[in-house]
């Protein structure tokens, strides 16, 4: 039976409108307000979209209270344990895990697209060496559409699939190039004999002078970081990609809008902010000072890597990342490193502090991913670019789902206008005439 929600105004006995209530496969029902304005002349008001479902989607499910995260129905814990990042990419894009043959084809297709057009390297030269890598990423990924316009018909599923492969394959190459450019080192070409993550680590961390030997523990750690960041439902950057895509913009432009949104410190910039915060704190003895700053309403300082809009009990990704963090620190013998000791002590103190307990502020995935990336030798200013590399597949999966959705229309929110009402420009104003 279809459920309805009746809206009344000022306690009037006569209902203003009846609105259908829709159910998904799991999760809260939604009140379908699409007809509200036509029927009543009223809009809904929800800054920050805290109570608004902007679309229907079958990709990722989150239960923030229970700390559940599912990609296409599979729990993140099982995917992180049993799958590689590329298998998760296939799953997110196609809805099902690949069999051996499908995986082989997918992996070799990705491998064959990892090089970027050679002329793209010219773009880098226009940037200062000290430019933030995310600034370069935004420009270079956006520029891809100028190189690959042979497959930009967004109505064609074949073209959309080609763009998806190109983006997943080329973004790691571009991320590594951003880093090499900023350090003045030569770009490293991809090597087809290496796995996706091995290849990225080589392009990022090796030089032409030495043979690169991948460490399986570190490769697995990075693979897991990418899996845990691959998708997260209608987060800010994914919603940005959907909104950009709703106008019919090309996939490279849309993914670029996601990268720009991700850059903010409240979103993907948090892992970088965590490391900068640890460096600023500097010593275990200064932790109480920073804890009290985080609690002080008059101080803008927040404990970076703590809290989440959706997870209010625990972030399931943080639990997995914490385990990976310890594996990496053990592998590299870094448990006694001052910065890591500081991070683990900060985590312990914050978890025992009533302010953080009462407000349900637990370490989020970026608290630990920042530490792991630092241990892997990734420079702090590259952390958000690493997040973008993992999230690219999620953005593409959502973009593709949206384009294929028959209900899709251009995104166009309305507003509660609080400015001046209509008025005339004073007669004595201006130089016209
Ligand atoms: N340190 C200190 N106090 C905090 C923190 C923090 N990290 N996070 C939230 N609070 C307080 C906040 O001041 C507010 O207090 P009050 O109720 O007294 O006004 C209360 O907790 C609720 O916070 P909120 O800002 O209303 O919650 P939100 O859901 O809008 O914000 C958040 C979520 C992630 C933006 C926020 O927790 C934050 O800024 N955290 C630090 C940045 C961070 O780590 N971001 C990464 C998120 S995970 C990666 C991703 O998925 O993008």
What percentage of the residues does DSSP assign to strands (E)? 5-15%
| Rg over CA atoms | 24 Å
Mean pLDDT: 93
Low-confidence stretches: none
Q: What is the chains' assembly state?
A: single chain
From the N-terminal CA to the C-terminal CA, the straight-line distance is 67 Å
Protein model, in words:
- Helix content is 50%, strand content 5%.
- It is mainly alpha-helical.
- It has a three-stranded antiparallel sheet. Strands 4-5-6 form a three-stranded antiparallel sheet.
- Helix 9 (216-229) packs antiparallel against helix 14 (316-331), helix 10 (236-246) crosses helix 18 (383-404) and helix 14 (316-331) packs parallel to helix 17.
- Bound molecules: carboxymethyl coenzyme *A.
- Residues 232, 235, 266-268, 270, 294, 302-309, 359, 361, 364-366 line the site of carboxymethyl coenzyme *A (CMC).
What's a concise summary of this model?
The chain is mostly helical and 433 residues long. The chain has helices spanning 36-40, 76-82, 85-94, 100-111, 121-125, 133-147, 157-183, 196-205, 216-229, 236-246, 251-262, 270-281, 287-295, 316-331, 338-352, 354-358, 365-375, 383-404, and strands at 3-7, 17-22, 30-31, 60-63, 68-71, 74-75.
Features:
single chain, 433 residues, mainly alpha, 3-stranded antiparallel β-sheet, 18 helices, 5% strand, globular, binds carboxymethyl coenzyme *A
What's the topology here?
Elements: E1 3-7, E2 17-22, E3 30-31, H1 36-40, E4 60-63, E5 68-71, E6 74-75, H2 76-82, H3 85-94, H4 100-111, H5 121-125, H6 133-147, H7 157-183, H8 196-205, H9 216-229, H10 236-246, H11 251-262, H12 270-281, H13 287-295, H14 316-331, H15 338-352, H16 354-358, H17 365-375, H18 383-404
Antiparallel strand pairs: 1-2, 2-3, 4-5, 5-6
Helix pairs in contact: 3-18, 6-7, 6-11, 7-8, 7-18, 9-14, 9-17, 9-18, 10-11, 10-18, 11-18, 12-17, 14-17
């Amino acid at each position: 039976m279809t459920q309805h929600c009746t809206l009344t105004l000022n306690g009037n006995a006569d209902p203003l409108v009846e609105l259908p209530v829709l159910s998904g496969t799991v999760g809260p029902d939604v009140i379908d307000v699409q007809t509200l304005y036509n029927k009543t002349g009223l809009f809904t008001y929800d800054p920050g979209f805290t109570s608004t479902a902007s679309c229907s989607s079958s990709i990722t499910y989150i239960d923030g209270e229970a700390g559940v995260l599912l990609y296409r129905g599979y729990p993140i814990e099982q995917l992180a344990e049993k799958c590689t990042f590329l298998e998760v990419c296939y799953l997110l894009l196609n809805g099902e895990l690949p069999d051996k043959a499908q995986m082989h084809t997918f992996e070799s297709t990705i491998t064959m697209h990892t090089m970027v057009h050679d002329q793209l390297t010219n773009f880098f030269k226009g940037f200062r060496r000290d430019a933030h890598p995310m600034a370069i990423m935004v420009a270079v990924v956006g520029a891809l559409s100028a190189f690959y316009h042979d497959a930009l018909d967004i109505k064609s599923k074949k073209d959309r699939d080609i763009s998806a492969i190109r983006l997943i394959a080329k973004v790691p190459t571009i991320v590594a190039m951003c880093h090499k450019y900023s350090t003045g080192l030569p770009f490293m070409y991809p090597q087809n004999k290496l796995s996706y993550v091995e290849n990225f680590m080589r392009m990022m961390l090796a030089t032409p002078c030495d043979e690169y030997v991948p460490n399986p523990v570190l490769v697995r750690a990075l693979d897991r970081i990418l899996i845990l960041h691959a998708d997260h439902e209608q987060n800010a950057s994914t919603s940005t990609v959907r909104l950009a895509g709703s106008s019919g913009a090309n996939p490279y432009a849309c993914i670029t809008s996601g990268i720009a949104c991700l850059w903010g410190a409240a979103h993907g910039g948090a892992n970088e902010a965590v490391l900068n915060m640890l460096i600023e704190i500097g010593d275990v003895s200064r932790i109480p000072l920073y804890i009290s700053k985080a609690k002080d309403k008059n101080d803008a300082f927040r404990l970076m890597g703590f809290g989440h809009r959706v997870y209010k009990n625990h972030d399931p990704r943080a639990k997995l990342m914490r385990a990976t963090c310890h594996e990496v620190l053990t592998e590299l013998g870094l448990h006694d490193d001052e910065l890591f000791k500081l991070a683990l002590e900060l985590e312990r103190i914050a978890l025992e502090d009533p302010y953080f307990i009462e407000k349900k502020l637990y370490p989020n995935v970026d608290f630990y991913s920042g530490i792991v990336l630092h241990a892997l030798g990734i420079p702090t200013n590259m952390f958000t670019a690493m997040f973008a590399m993992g999230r690219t597949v999620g953005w593409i999966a959502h973009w593709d789902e949206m384009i294929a959705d028959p209900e899709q229309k251009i995104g166009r929110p309305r507003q509660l206008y609080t400015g001046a009402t209509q008025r005339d420009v004073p007669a004595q104003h201006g130089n016209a005439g």
